[in-house]
Design a protein that fits this description.
By secondary structure, chain A is an alpha/beta fold. Helices cover 37% and strands 20% of the residues of chain A. A six-stranded mixed sheet of chain A has the order 6-7-8-3-9-10, with helices on both faces. The chains are: A alpha/beta, B mainly alpha.
Chain lengths: 667, 282
């Protein structure tokens, strides 16, 4: 019976009439089920309507549309079965602690005898540890003590549902911590169902079974629900060591930061500025801090954007690839540096929503990725993938986690390919977890992951700082694989074709600049700035490791390709390979209409126009089949046969991905 | 106080002030200025009266005029009719105030709660209240006389109508100002209206009600003088002053005024003390 639903919020909507006429739509389309015994947190920025939602569950406020059911009955008015603990305690100041609690008990349980009543009051005062303060007036108590009285009062009437409105918001950190533990203990002991409004991320993770994130108003809705899989009983000091803690925490913080960014973006005017024969000269260009963002930084610093007419290009630093995906979904970004798998992934709907066709006209970088394993593995003799396989077999009792930055990134696909070709199932023998780059290094350091596959400077840093050892470079897996590409939405590309060409030109010119080793010092200096990578320039390298014959060392040193024959032109064969790999690992179904998809993703005409106008002559370059390290080649003639022939794969499906007719953004 | 400070003082310098001297040192800044202020005022008044700058008798006339001195020292005599000591006059005035003021308190608090709880009533009557409270006590006298055709009830009515407004308006405000949190607590606990009234509304509005009551007691006392001055033939301190004026007993007037001020002050202090007792620290 513990899984029975207690609260059911359906299609909830709330409108507030404004004093100047009109309405403010606070909440819209809220659906939420709360099971008995669950602890739910509502989190979001101020003004997102989380208290309004709580008040509607409490019955203190009625929804404009939709219903709230508690135990199957529509909530029409407040009642003691849905007791609220208010943020500012709401004790009656003229009554003592005992009298305040007695007031609630008398009201809800009028039939009690004098002794029972007294026992009940004392029990609840003791429960919150206020035995010595029963005769005091609220004003004689500290904030923390007052809130404890409010909790005791709420619990004394044995509510079905406890509703807490930022209960610890006004308390100092120490008191807050103690009260959180107390509340958690009481909730566990009495199997309480609770809903808490909070803006404290750590508090939400510590206390909740599920965390409901609300988007910004007007018209707030549920942006996501996170399950907290940390076992109970929990302790404030030890939950932080649980592997899920930081990923949950960063998930919520990502959500909140994203909401803030969208709000800031909405606050600015967004006019399309047409100039110099370009449809739009103001471009928000997203990137994440990696060495491969060098062409963007250079194009900005060297004025390549303005040279090609883009007067107002703004580089937007995202902390994760997810930020780039979301920026494309809500159209706060015009264009972005993206992993080469992202255009196919988003076009095929891999992000979990409707397919969003993405176009790429430029491959910005190739290579530059590496697999790093933790130092402790190297110390146990792990030097190659075979060693790692054997090591995994001898350590199969422990979980093994490897970090990747994004499911659609080349790191993930190459790492999986490399593991699978060497007899390690990337889902069964190890666990691949998506982590932000900075988190990976920290996790490698404290031993919670075995290693990771990522671009520079994170491999170099792990090596230099002595936390990891490079084990294989991408040169050994697939030399010349596409790394990062320039991506835009298809509707954007159709609405601003000349801007798209200008952007491609500016970045292609920057790529050319970046490919010259003579410029690498300057680039490292530029990227070390806080606007880009914000780390020591010695850690930023683009291709230092050449041997005496001028060849790149296979691993241990970076080896970016920014420019050259066939480097920058988008390749359908490569994107098809990516499609097969994404389908192989069940990120997306393999699209039956893959020919159409590839045609729409790879905008070769924009690239050709840009290259021709810059006077660059590699337009006619033709690429042969892709050769990978295990000796298999991929020519793209029969992708499904290829998929069926690989040894390790998930149960993939083949499906039509409906993209609709290409259509430009509405002006 | 002296016992506790003495040993400390003895331990130190011999010339350090002890006992009364210490108390004087600590408090003279609080005591000296009012003495100078009041003394200076009385001196100025006496001088201007002695020099004939004004026809108003000086403060010393309270003692020099034999009739006034008698009134000053024997406030309890009663020779029948209107010839009574000042204490007895004051008591008649006070009993009238007590009646009018109690009526005003009962009606004012009840009406204030009704208006505070009900927005419609508030909108309907607030302009009227705001208008009526601007009418001076003296202006009510003829209306009261027309209404009641009789001095006694008319005087009580004047007190009532003058003192009701602060009580009413403050009570209404107090009810309006009940924090939403307290209302929410009552809502969540599903309190009955009767329990809400006694457990939440009254205690929460009490400080406002007392503020109203305290302002009103002053106004009621102001009104009684006005009422009695123009309603001769009723014993009371207002009548006493008016009578003294008719007979040109200027020093009697001064004495009457001093009584009025003193009684007003006592009434106000009394209310303040009551407020402190009933709703401490709110």
């Amino acid at each position: 019976m513990t899984t029975a639903t207690l609260v059911n919020v359906q299609e909830l909507e709330k409108n507030f009439p404004l004093s100047g006429g009109g309405n403010y739509l606070a909440l819209k389309g809220i659906d939420l089920e709360i099971r008995k015994g669950e602890f739910i947190s509502l989190i979001g920025h101020s003004g997102c309507g989380k208290s309004t939602l709580l008040n509607m569950i409490a019955g203190l406020d009625l929804p404009t549309a939709g219903t709230v059911l508690v135990d199957g009955e529509t909530v029409k008015r407040p009642g003691p079965d849905k007791m609220v603990v208010f943020q500012n305690y709401s004790l009656l100041p003229w009554l003592t602690v005992e009298q305040n609690i007695a007031l609630a008990i008398d009201e809800v349980m009028p039939g009690l005898s004098g002794d029972e009543r007294k026992a009940m009051i004392d029990e609840h005062i003791d429960m919150v540890g206020l035995g010595h303060a029963g005769h005091k007036l609220p004003r004689e108590l500290s904030g923390g003590m007052r809130q404890r009285v409010a909790i005791a009062r709420a619990l004394a009437i044995k509510p079905k549902l406890l509703l807490l409105d930022e209960p610890f918001g006004a308390l100092d950190a120490l008191t807050r911590g103690n009260l959180q533990e107390k509340l958690m203990q009481i909730c566990n002991e009495h199997q309480l169902t609770a809903v808490m409004v909070t803006h404290d991320v750590d508090e939400a993770v510590l206390l909740s079974d599920r965390i409901v994130c609300l988007t910004n108003g007007p018209g707030s809705k549920i942006g996501g629900i996170l399950e907290v899989d940390i076992p109970r009983p929990r302790q404030r000091m030890t939950v932080v060591h649980h592997p899920s803690y930081y990923s949950l925490r960063s998930e919520i913080i990502y959500f909140l930061t994203r909401q803030k960014r969208v709000k800031q973006w909405q606050a600015k005017p967004h006019k399309v500025l047409a100039r110099h024969g370009l449809e739009k000269v103001n471009v928000d260009l997203g990137f994440i801090p990696l060495a491969a963002c060098a062409p963007m930084a250079i194009a900005e610093a060297k004025g390549f954007f303005s040279k090609h007419g883009l007067d107002d290009v703004h580089l937007v630093r995202e902390t994760s690839w997810r930020g780039v995906t979301d920026g494309f979904l809500d159209q706060t970004l015009d264009a972005a540096l993206m992993p080469s798998g992202m255009p196919t992934w988003m076009t095929a709907g891999g992000h979990g929503g409707d397919p969003v066709p993405i176009v790429t006209a430029l491959t910005i970088s190739r290579n530059g990725n590496e697999v790093t394993l933790a130092k402790r593995l190297a110390e146990q003799g792990v030097r190659s993938v075979e060693d790692y396989r054997n090591w995994l077999q001898s350590h199969n009792r422990e979980p093994h986690t490897l970090g990747i930055v994004h499911p659609a990134s080349m790191h993930n696909l190459l790492l999986r390919y490399w593991l699978a070709a060497s007899g390690i199932d990337p889902d069964k023998d190890v666990h691949l977890q998506t982590l932000p780059p900075a988190q990976m290094l920290a996790d490698l350091k404290d031993g919670s992951i075995d290693g990771y596959c990522i671009g520079e400077p994170w491999n170099l840093r792990a090596t230099r700082e002595g936390h990891g050892v490079p084990i294989v470079g991408d040169l050994e897996i697939w030399n010349g694989h596409p790394g990062k590409v320039l991506g835009v939405r298809e509707d954007w590309a159709l609405a601003y074709p000349n801007t798209h060409i200008a952007l491609t030109k500016a970045l292609l010119e920057a790529c050319q600049f970046c490919a010259d080793p003579a410029h690498w010092d300057e680039m490292a200096e530029l990227l070390s700035d806080r606007r880009y990578l914000g780390m020591k320039r010695e850690l930023i390298s683009f291709g230092g490791g050449k041997d005496s014959e001028g060849q790149f060392a296979p691993h241990g040193e970076p080896h970016h390709l920014f420019f050259g024959a066939g480097v920058n032109r988008p390749s359908r064969t490569e994107h098809l390979w990516i499609l097969t790999q994404l389908a192989r690992w069940a990120e997306i179904p393999f699209p039956r209409n893959y020919v159409e998809i590839l045609e729409r993703i790879c905008n070769i005409s924009v690239f050709s126009t840009a290259a021709r106008e810059l006077g660059i002559e590699d337009v006619s370059y033709q690429r042969g089949p892709i050769e990978l390290f295990d000796g298999r080649s991929f020519d793209g003639n029969d992708p499904i046969a290829y998929l069926n022939s690989v040894r390790v794969h998930r149960d993939f499906s083949v499906a039509e991905i409906p993209l609709g007719v290409p259509r430009p953004l509405a002006a | 106080m002296t016992t506790s400070t003495t040993p400390i003082a003895n331990r130190g310098d011999r010339s350090a002030p002890t006992g009364l001297a210490l108390w004087w040192k600590n408090n003279r800044k609080l005591i000296l200025p009012p003495i100078f202020g009041i003394g200076g005022f009385l001196l100025f008044w006496q001088l201007s009266a002695s020099l004939g700058l004004t026809k108003l008798a000086g403060p010393l006339s309270l003692f020099t005029e034999e009739r006034t001195r008698e009134l000053l020292f024997y406030p309890f005599f009663d020779r029948g009719g209107l010839d009574k000591g000042l204490f007895l006059h004051s008591m008649s005035s006070l009993s009238r105030v007590a009646l009018g003021y109690t009526l005003a308190a009962v009606v004012g608090i009840a009406a204030g709660i009704a208006v505070g709880l009900n927005k419609g009533l508030d909108r309907a009557f607030d302009p009227l209240f705001q208008f009526l409270r601007m009418v001076a006590p003296l202006a009510w006298v003829p209306i009261a006389l027309v209404l009641f055709q009789n001095n006694q009830p008319a005087a009580i009515f004047v007190i009532f109508i003058t003192s009701i407004w602060p009580i009413l308006i403050n009570t209404a405000e107090g009810v309006r100002q009940i924090p939403q949190d307290y209302r929410n607590v009552a809502l969540v606990l599903q309190m009955s209206s009767r329990r809400f009234f006694t457990k939440v509304l009254i205690p929460s509005a009490l400080p406002y009600i007392f503020t109203g009551l305290r302002i009103s007691i002053g106004l009621a006392w102001l009104a009684i003088i006005a009422a009695e001055i123009v309603m001769p033939g009723t014993p009371g301190i207002g009548f006493f002053i008016w009578d003294a004026y008719q007979n040109s007993y200027v020093s009697d007037i001064v004495l009457g005024v001093i009584w009025i001020g003193a009684i007003g002050l006592v009434l106000d202090r009394l209310m303040a003390w009551l407020q402190q007792r009933i709703s401490p620290g709110q």
